[in-house]
Specification:
CATH architecture of the largest domain: 3-Layer(aba) Sandwich
Bound molecules: 2-amino-3-ketobutyric acid
Shape: globular
CATH class of the largest domain: Alpha Beta
Order of helices and strands: EHEHEHEHHEEHEEEHEEHEEHEHHH
Helix content: 40-55%
Strand order of the largest sheet: 3-2-1-4-5-7
CATH superfamily of the largest domain: NAD(P)-binding Rossmann-like Domain
Oligomer: single chain
Largest sheet: 6 strands, parallel
Strand content: 5-15%
Radius of gyration: 19 Å
């Protein structure tokens, strides 16, 4: 049986991943790691162990690893692209100094480590259409620079010390549970909140801005399947392109309108978000993930939209 530590368990991915891992491996085998000020609450706090696990303090994380005999760490500590651009030093401290601490703890305690990369690891001179698995990665955002460094440092620890590091490059993630904070792709979540609340949506990205997106259940499935994959089949490790849908604002708007015909969207472009989005792929080629660990998404734009609208309506009603 695995013993897992989720660092960033109250964030957009962590809050759902922790439950999914607890379902799969047992509540007592999955520790929800958090930082002061972002403590787990409700079912997350009640369903299993929780411990402070701040990436900035490696000794603390090491203690948690020893106490629970942790063998796998999901390291989800990071600032998203837009906030990172506003706080580059902090983004580096959390993303890279923090990763270094985690990899050291993993080396000493023989843990496998999953630290996600992102479509943000690509840049303006990357081929944008069907972005290959192995290609040019020269991003111009601090988020992208730290994601490329994450990939390289994780790969370094694997080759030099044998640490079992694995990762995917996540697209924009869409979920009805925990909203993202400060990303370029957040609009694809925000648009559902406006649609369900019956409000007009102000879209921060221009018509025609194509970006890869993924529904959270597929993102969780990708992370867990990769960490369970047979290492002998892995030619790549840090990090795999994973894709399920790519759309522009007008396409997701039209899809929502099939269910909410009165829904209105206007464009109010955010120049920072637009310039970041323009530098990212339109769609990624995920054939390496498909052939090396049988990656396959379950949701497309149409099925995700139906599920998001249903689940978010229930959630918002329940909160009111
Ligand atoms: C962001 O927009 O910053 C993230 C990402 C694509 O990595 N959602």
């Amino acid at each position: 049986m695995k013993n897992i530590l989720v660092i960033g368990s109250t964030g957009q991915i962590g809050s759902e991943l922790t439950f999914e891992l607890r379902k799969r491996y047992g509540n007592d085998h999955v520790v929800a790691g958090y930082i002061i000020g972002a403590e787990p609450k409700g079912a997350l706090a009640e369903s299993g162990p929780m411990e402070i696990a701040d990436v900035i303090d490696g000794s603390h994380v090491a203690e948690v690893c020893r106490k629970y005999k942790i063998d796998t760490i999901y390291n989800l500590a990071a600032l998203l692209s837009v906030v990172a651009e506003k706080r580059p030093r902090l983004a580096w401290r959390i993303g890279i100094d923090g990763l270094w601490n985690i990899l050291e703890v993993a080396r000493e305690n023989k843990c496998a480590v999953f630290t996600p990369s992102s479509i943000g690891s690509f840049g303006p001179n990357t081929p944008h259409d069907h972005t290959p698995q192995d290609t040019i990665q020269r991003p111009r955002t601090i988020y992208g620079v730290s994601k490329v460094t994450t990939e390289l440092l994780s790969e370094y620890y694997h080759h030099k010390y044998g640490v079992d590091t694995r990762a995917v490059r996540f697209p924009g993630l869409i979920s009805y549970v925990t909203p993202p904070g400060g990303g370029t792709t957040d609009y694809a979540v925000d648009i559902f909140y406006s649609a369900v609340r019956g409000e007009q949506f102000m879209c921060p990205l221009k018509e025609g801005t194509l970006l890869d997106m993924m529904y959270m259940p597929d993102a969780l499935h990708a992370a867990i399947t990769l960490m369970e994959a047979d290492p002998a089949r892995l030619i790549h490790r840090n990090a795999f392109n994973v894709a399920s849908m790519s759309f522009a604002p007008e396409t997701i708007y039209a899809e929502i309108c099939k269910h909410k015909p009165d829904f209105k969207m206007v464009y109010e472009i955010d120049p920072l978000k637009q310039s970041i989005a323009d530098s990212w792929p339109d769609s990624m080629d995920d054939s390496a993930a498909r052939s090396e660990w049988d990656w396959e998404p379950h949701f497309n734009l149409a099925s995700m939209t139906v599920d998001m609208l249903d689940k978010l309506s229930v959630r918002l009603q329940w909160q009111n």
